[in-house]
Amino acid sequence: MYRFIIFIFFFIALNASGQIKLPALVGDNMVLQRDKPTTIWGWASPGEKIRIETRNKVIKTQSDQTGKWTAQLPAFSAGGPFDMLINEVLIHHVLWGDVWLCAGQSNMVLPMERVKELYAEEIKKAQYPQIRNFFIPTVSSKIQEKTDLPKSVWQETNPQSVLSMGAVTYFFAQKQFEKNHIPIGIINASVGGSPIESWLSLDQLKQFPAYAQDTTRIQAAAVTKSLPDKGLTESIKWFDTNYQPQGWKNYFIPGFWEDQGLGNLNGVVWFRKEIELTAEQVNQPAKIFMGRIVDADEMYVNGTRIGNITYQYPPRRYEVKPGIFHPGKNILVIRVSNQAGKGGFVPDKRYELQLGNESLSLMGPWQYKVGSVWNPNPVVSTAQMYSPTALYNGMIAPLVPYSLRGILWYQGESNTSKAQDYKDLLKALAANWRAKFQQPELPFIYAQLPGFGDRQFLPVESNWAQLREAQRKAEAEIPKSKMVVALDLGEWNDIHPLRKKPLGERFADAVTQEPAGPQIAKATRKENTIELEFNPKGGLLKIDKSAENELQYFAIAGKDRKFVWAKASIENNKVIVSSDEISEPYFVRYAWADNPEGANLTNETSLPAGPFEIEIKP
Fold first, then answer.
1. Is the peptide bond before 81 cis (omega within 30 degrees of 0)?
2. Is 177 helix (H, G, I), strand (E, B) or coil?
3. Residues ≥6 apart with Cβ < 8 Å to 488
4. Residue pLDDT, tens place only, 305-340
5. For a tag site, which of 90, 326, 560, 618 has the least CB within 10 Å?
6. By three-state DSSP, how is residue 104 classified?
7. Can you give the pTM of this predicted structure?
8. What is the DSSP code (8-state) at residue 473?
């Protein structure tokens, strides 16, 4: 019996020593960086010998006393797919190509599914087995750097898988692949609403004491205490077809309820509309588009719930299954809940019922009734994932030391309230990640924030403009960096603009330093006028005359920094600005607003000039 027990323990130990653990990033379909030595790693029993075989090469190493092992593969040219054998673990379909780490806020990870109506044809043609996407689920850690990621997989790109891929990253990868025919690996580490300081390591963040000490700067919305919703507690629920409406008032969709007589209401409001359909119409494929709704909604058709979304940003697109609509009268009901700010239906979006090839507008008169009123609760909860270092620890540290081709960064919306710090934070981020990945010249390409918000008709101060200026200035101070101007790709009423294809393609062009829109280079005062010179790489300056025939959105100020609109014209490939109100100008601004819609300086690339402020020194 004793000998049998000894044998069992020996057998278990033998099998344990033969098992290795690989990080989530190392697996089937992975893409490794071409033309440079690459590092892979894992865990095994202490002192265990590791043998890696791939592409007719054998690499040997050994785990340390903690069980961690690393191995450096030689530089391989682009190609594949190949298999890789690590001891007894066989990894299939490995490619060598260009690996890009794509990170930031939600606009970097906003999926193709969200823009599928705009890019339906592109999705149908998305058959790229050599473009592979590795999406990192959100994970944060306030204190300790994680050593591995949650379970995820490398996915080949096809019309189905592309729907979950970030739209910017897909169009970036597609253009890069079509140009070079080299495999592309996308690692997407992005979290909606995240501030830049959450992506810095603690050692780098220590140069910013205010951020290093404050782990609760970004806070979640106040928790609200709700009263029962009459629409759900009455004997006949308000979405039921047997319900007889009483006391409902008129409402015009789109629009916010605070602008239609419901001031300062946080709670639940129900909306109702009756429509008539023919027998022919109800036999068509049906889809309802209800724009964007602030904040959460549930939609019912003839008493059947057809869908719901729990937060404000996604577009509302609900398919209606056959048999729900019927000839004659049909009842549409929407239950909307909102706990802060203006609730309701965002203007200038798509509100319609699509029946086959026919579209019926759902804008116009509806009826509403309040179901519940919520009282704010002063208790505020902290969002851990937004704490300084938390996302670096959870989502970037586990990637080190994977070899990369470069970094794409799209972030800044959550830092507009402290825009004055952003330039230094961005510089620190680039330096931080380059040091951690031991690639000091890693290309760092980032998007400047697009336009967003109400249009202003007088010169104004703007946090968004100040952050864009920080992004512009950082480009000159971050080696091997390139800023992509996205000013013209925004939407005044949507912080998640849908036109992701041109932005992805601009990222791709930035890799090879293709000519871009005008970039301010120099300002010279001549009496009461200012001459602005721009980088000549994009060719001659031009006016985008799609809206106005004259240059728009230039403002100047004297020493007092009181800005007024300026006259601006193009002369000898320079922009000449002046104002009768300013006899001695010291400052010039261009496109300085949250949403400078109408800014129209461009060049022969037809790409926009980025916003700027420049001081004319004596």
1. yes
2. helix
3. 450, 451, 608
4. 999 999 998 999 999 999 999 999 999 999 999 988
5. 618
6. strand
7. 0.88
8. H
